[in-house]
Design goal:
Blueprint lengths: L72 E4 L4 E3 L4 E8 L4 E3 L4 E7 L2 E3 L1 E3 L11 E3 L2 E13 L1 E5 L2 E5 L1 E6 L2 E2 L9 E2 L2 E2 L3 E3 L2 E4 L5 E5 L3 E5 L2 E5 L13 E4 L4 E5 L2 E5 L6 E4 L3 E5 L2 E5 L34 E6 L2 E5 L2 E4 L3 E9 L2 E5 L2 E4 L5 E14 L2 E4 L2 E13 L3 H10 L6 H6 L6 E4 L2 E7 L1 E5 L4 E4 L4 E4 L3 E6 L5 E4 L3 E6 L7 E2 L7 E2 L4 E2 L21 E6 L2 E3 L1 E4 L14 E6 L2 E4 L1 E7 L4 E2 L11 E4 L7 E5 L4 E4 L3 E8 L4 E3 L6 E5 L2 E3 L6 E10 L1
Parallel strand pairs: 1-3, 2-4, 6-17, 12-18, 16-19, 17-20, 18-21, 19-22, 20-23, 21-24, 22-25, 23-26, 24-27, 25-28, 26-29, 27-30, 28-31, 29-32, 30-33, 31-33, 32-34, 33-35, 34-36, 35-37, 35-38, 36-39, 37-40, 38-41, 39-42, 40-43, 41-47, 43-49, 47-50, 48-51, 49-52, 50-55, 51-56, 55-57, 56-58
Antiparallel strand pairs: 3-9, 5-6, 5-9, 7-8, 10-11, 12-13, 14-17, 15-16, 44-45, 46-53, 52-54, 57-61, 59-60, 59-61
Length: 683
């Protein structure tokens, strides 16, 4: 049964025997890289199915050394090579600088010490192969040592091939031990269809936990803790759990995943798979970016390991990623958090579906987003709590809905998305509303798409609520069941020109571009476009529709148009029904506090102040529907105004509001429409 409480990343839900507070008490001596283990190893080393092999070393140093027995030490001298053809155990291992342990082509090598994958080092990004190869680092290792020789699992992304290594490999036939690293699986039980109560630990680089590439697999109460860099979260190289491929279903129930490292992602759903996470706690923290990575970053997804700073963010790991075509990922009664960058991401996919129900979505490092949406994705958030550094949503073309986790709504998603919740689990989920606390913005649109807010959803932003970068962003808010919108800086909707610097093509590097572009504030005044219409709605308008809600705050359209950035113009179209608005609604001139934005000033992205200004190419069309009242608090410039017979325009107490149309004083009359150069003045 699903518990009714929502765990957060601050709560310790790890079983006592594997608490993150209990560090491994069997040390690895003289490690080449000072990376501490982050969670204790349980006493049992062999699950029921995946028992580690105990074999002698079949190779020899430089082809001449003797095989190693389980109770012996292995030493690989400087400039020597030990080639292993089967899994080998020992009690101590020394690899001198320049020494190498190799395996035949078509195989991979993983070292575990006391049940922890360790010692693996990624090659440099600039090695010509994407820096994907791993080697066992020089150093001295002691304890229960297993050198695992497994069949290679090569996974291609774009032009690169990533040599995956994983504790458990699953395909349509079940667990494939020949591609698995059994000695990293601690405690619990493992079968062809499920694993329960296992612990997977790694402090090496780019080691995967569970890789499911076919069939259905359930992980119950797994504890996974990885400390060390991954390499690519567009394919899941180094992720804790990957579900990929047509017909693949992965269920995580009661999981506790805690990772530290560059793109050391917790959960990857890819290539039409269906991944379901419930009753789980997931947190990913930043790692140390490799020295050879470009300081400004790259948007080349083969190499991208930091968030593009042009989003106004920093960070180098997102907790989850949803990829491929028509892939589904659902999070129920869970806590998903990242230090920075992002908690829930859809990136590199098309027509995917991301769902979160009664879950907590957070950034713990003061920057980041709750979800990222690209590729015509659909996102559902019912009964969720957002506590995010910057954005609840970065919108690149999607449909997103924030509402209540009513029984009917949850049941409908359960059926349509094959989430698989039982009737008992559905009954145990309490109905609750969504709460959004965003440090800066609720939504930032970079592409056309819709956002719907209803039920009892409470939106609280530190700055502007809805930030739209010269695209046809659409928001619909229904306050009939108590939804509220509160803006920290008093701006509810900002339509503005994009201030996102572009990537710059580079040569001589493995990556094709670097994010070294610059944004420069335009000077002078916009030029009126002869082809743009500001007085009637256009298909490219940004739109807001608000029903049965009380709003306090301003709405601005500062798009220049007139051919600026190939944009002739763009309108902001607003419709209000049974709604009260107190604030300014106007065309405006927006300015950043700095005239040039580079990576150094990345936090200035989207940070503008507005001066209400006459409409040029930035029409503002307002419809006050039945039962609506707009209390105008300052001068407002519109291009169209329509009032229902029961609508009203008022001034604050003790003041009056007047209207001019094309410079002529005009009486404001309910039931009438006005177009042209409209100016509302409060005196």
């Amino acid at each position: 049964m699903l518990p009714t409480d929502n765990r957060t990343d601050h709560e310790d839900t790890t079983p006592a025997s594997t608490s993150a507070a209990d560090l491994l008490d069997r040390p690895i001596a003289n490690r080449a890289r000072p990376r501490a283990l982050i969670i204790a190893v349980a006493a049992a080393f062999a699950p029921t199915l995946l028992a580690p092999a105990s074999a002698q070393a079949a190779g020899r140093k430089n082809g001449k050394g003797k095989g190693a027995k389980a109770d012996t030490c292995i030493t690989v001298g400087s400039d020597e090579t030990l080639t292993l053809t089967e899994t080998t155990t020992a009690t101590c291992l020394t690899i001198e600088e320049g020494g190498t342990i190799a395996v035949p082509d078509g195989y991979s090598l993983s070292l575990t010490v006391n049940g922890v994958e360790t010692g693996s080092e990624l090659a440099a990004l600039t090695d010509g192969n994407g820096g994907v190869a791993t080697a066992i680092a020089a150093g001295t290792y002691s304890g229960t040592i297993v050198l695992n020789v497994a069949e290679a699992t090569d996974v291609t992304y774009s032009t690169l091939t990533f040599p995956f290594r994983q504790a458990i490999y699953v395909d349509a036939d079940g667990v494939d031990e020949s591609k698995s690293v059994p000695s990293d699986v601690v405690g619990g039980t493992v079968s062809d269809t499920a694993a329960s109560d296992i612990t997977l630990l790694s402090n090496g680089e780019a080691f995967n936990g569970v890789y499911v590439a076919g069939g259905s697999y359930t992980l119950t109460n797994p504890t996974i803790a990885f400390d060390g860099n991954g390499r690519c979260d567009f394919i899941g190289y180094g992720a804790s759990v990957v579900g990929t491929g047509s017909g693949t279903t992965v269920v995580l129930d009661g999981a506790n995943i805690s990772n530290v490292g560059v793109v050391r992602t917790a959960v990857i759903a890819d290539a039409t798979a269906n991944v379901i996470v419930k009753n789980s706690t997931i947190h990913c923290a930043d790692g140390v970016v490799p020295d050879e990575y470009p300081s400004a970053g790259t948007g080349d997804t083969r190499y991208m390991i930091t968030v593009p700073w042009m989003l106004g963010l920093s960070g180098n790991v997102r907790a989850t990623n949803l990829l491929g075509a028509s892939t589904k990922a659902s999070y129920i009664n869970s806590s998903i958090s990242s230090e920075k960058w992002g908690a829930l991401s859809v990136d590199g996919g098309s027509y995917c579906t991301l769902t979160a129900i009664n879950s907590t979505i957070a950034n713990t490092g003061g920057e980041g987003y709750g979800s990222y949406a690209i590729g015509n994705v659909t996102e559902h958030f019912l009964g969720c709590t957002f506590d995010v550094g910057d954005y609840a949503l970065i919108h690149w073309g999607a449909s997103a809905h924030y509402g209540d986790s009513t029984a009917d709504a949850v049941s409908a998603l359960n059926d349509s998305l094959d989430i698989g919740l039982t009737s008992a689990e559905l009954s145990a989920l309490p109905e609750q509303s969504t709460t959004i606390d965003a440090g800066r913005f609720m939504v930032m649109w970079y592409a056309a798409g819709s956002v719907a807010i209803d039920g009892g959803t409470q939106v609280n932003t530190g700055e502007t609520t809805f930030m739209c970068k010269a695209v046809a962003g659409t928001v619909t808010v229904d306050g009939s069941d108590g939804a509220t919108i509160t803006s920290g800086n008093g701006v509810l909707f900002q339509l503005m020109d994009t201030d996102r610097p572009s990537s710059v093509t580079v040569s001589g590097y493995p990556w094709s571009s670097e994010t070294t572009g610059t944004y420069t504030e335009p000077t002078g005044s916009p030029t009126k476009s002869s082809s743009w219409t500001t007085t009637s709605s256009q298909s490219t308008d940004a739109k807001g529709t608000f029903t049965d809600i009380a709003l306090t705050g301003d709405f601005y359209n500062s798009v220049w148009g007139g051919g600026n950035a190939s944009l002739q113009g763009q309108n902001l179209t607003l419709s209000f029904t049974r709604t009260t608005i107190e604030g300014v609604i106007s065309a405006s001139t927006a300015k950043h506090s700095v005239s040039t934005i580079t990576k150094t000033e990345y936090r200035q992205i989207s940070e503008v102040t507005n001066t209400p200004s006459a409409v040029v190419n930035n029409g503002v069309l307002v419809t006050l529907g039945a039962g609506s009242t707009w209390t105008v608090t300052g001068t407002s410039y519109l291009s169209a105004l329509t009032l229902a017979s029961t609508a009203a325009i008022e001034a604050p107490s003790g003041k009056t509001v007047t209207l001019t149309v094309d410079g002529t004083a005009t009486t404001i009359t309910a039931g009438k429409s006005y177009t042209g150069a409209l100016t509302l003045t409060v005196s």
